Amino acid sequence: MSVAFRQVGFIGLGVMGQHMCRNLCRKAALPVHVHDINKQAMEQALEDGAVAHTSVRDLAAHAEVVFLSLPSIDHVEQVCLGDGGLLSGERRPRLIVDTSTSDVARTRALAARLAEQDVRFLDAPVARMPEAARDGTLLIMVGGAPEDLDAARPLLDCMGSDVVHCGGTGCGQIVKIANNMVLMMNVAVLAETLLICERAGIDGGQLLNVLATGSAASQALNVVGIRALAPREFSQGRFSTAYALKDVSLAASLAEASGVDAAILARTRDLLQSAVAQGDGQVYFPVLINQIATT
What we know:
Layout: E1 8-11, H1 17-27, E2 32-35, H2 39-47, E3 51-52, H3 56-60, E4 65-68, H4 73-81, E5 95-98, H5 104-116, E6 120-123, E7 126-127, H6 130-135, E8 138-143, H7 146-159, E9 160-167, H8 171-200, H9 204-211, H10 219-229, H11 241-258, H12 263-277, H13 289-293
Parallel strand pairs: 1-2, 1-4, 2-3, 4-5, 5-6, 8-9
Antiparallel strand pairs: 7-8
Helix pairs in contact: 1-7, 4-5, 8-10, 8-11, 8-12, 9-10, 11-12
């Protein structure tokens, strides 16, 4: 593999990050330096062949490019600019690649602040299920300079089967927010449809199986509808309601900034907020159907 970097860093070994990091360890043929506050996740990364570091600052001294997979822009900003962060020591990475889903305006502001310190930045949020992260078949939507993507692409190819340049800084985040906006709104519509038709007398599973063969078919129906909504299976460990609310809130902010009255989006956000308020923040987000059932 021909790459522009010899030392790679990865911070954030959560549901998606652990698999992405593992694929880097297995495919990049380069040292992968890791840090996470979760001890168990760090131990697993060591088994995968990574080099563990006890702090972000220490990792920064060893990695030329650092990938981030973190819960929010707050965490991204802290890891990059905070005390003990990636820029706090004498040695720092040349390029930071944020695979998190983050606020567009704050992502652009962060990139500008990093540029002042001669550190390049790509926003590269990922889409598809945890199984895709495991298999290295993620969709990775990239915003930033083409030359920076060219430098990082061999590493991104270790984690995703579809690496797409969406435009300048922040454009990767815009496309990712759009992806999740459409998914969440589709699931809300499916949940409403399912309840209406079940109460009219048809089995929900049968309904969705038939719809999946017609013009109403979609990935949301096939994956979320049939596997979760119809059987009411909302386990932990998949895309949580709290994360869904975060992404829909990012979409709502984008809609407001764009001057669009996004009524369907607002309804979806209300359902997710209610689910979180009632204690369902950590379970799979299609649990929002329970909020429709009680209104």
